[in-house]
Amino acid sequence: MCGRFTLITDLQTIAEIFGVPATLEAQPRYNIAPSQEVVAILHEGQRQMAWLRWGLIPSWAREEAIGNRMINARAETLAEKPSFKRLLRSRRCLVVADGFYEWQQTNGSKKPMYITLRDGSPFAFAGLWDQWSAADGRLLRTCTIVTTEPNELLATIHNRMPVILPREDCERWLDPTVQEAEALLPLLRPYPAAEMQARPVSRLVNDPRNEGAALLA
DNA sequence: CCAGACGTTGTT
DNA sequence: GTCTGG
DNA sequence: CCAGACGTTGTT
DNA sequence: GTCTGG
């Protein structure tokens, strides 16, 4: 699955890579956790960068707390689940990252591993987003990250992995004229293991209050 | 028709 | 909002 | 994902 | 055990 990730690359570079205006600013982040704001790219009128809160609150939800659990969406059932079907058609997004953490369970203990592309370049998770109006009038934009079965590398660590979209697939995922599940679901596959790498990192990363480059030691 | 759920993960 | 179950 | 709380009453 | 918060 995916429950924690990094975005260290500056957003000017991110903007250039994904072909959008650099409208956001942020410090490097080494421990992005659910319920926090993440950098996303979506197509609303035009392609743009946006802050979205990680943890989907569907527009019909009564309680904000639902978002604490909806941090992932299974690719295998995306087109059937009431919560996601509508979003697959019209509310797709990219969630920008340059690495993510998975906890490997080995004889009773959990070891955090840090997974990146081999060349260290930033990448995009496939995501869905929605808007939710709170009773007090706040309008929240939230998102969820799509997961799938693991590739050969991730299978040694965990039984799920986030969907990473190759650059060319990002175009189709964001294209608002594409709405058929048949055209979208084939994009949601495990990223090639040969292009990824994983290494153990400090258990400091366990606590989402810990931040900074020391986590990667 | 209305009522009620709507999610993932991991663990048992 | 949309789907399932009764 | 992990960490940390998990309750009520009454009083301030 | 289960839920909430980050």
Automatic annotation (TrEMBL):
UniProt KW keywords: Covalent protein-DNA linkage, DNA damage, DNA-binding, Hydrolase, Lyase, Protease
Keyword presence, Protease: yes
GO biological process: protein-DNA covalent cross-linking repair; proteolysis
GO molecular function per UniProt: lyase activity; peptidase activity; single-stranded DNA binding
E.C. code: 3.4.-.-
Taxonomy, superkingdom: Bacteria
Coiled-coil regions listed in the entry: none
EC main group: hydrolase
InterPro entries (alphabetical): SRAP, SRAP-like
Keyword Nucleus recorded: no
Family: Belongs to the SOS response-associated peptidase family.
Name under which the protein is recorded: Abasic site processing protein
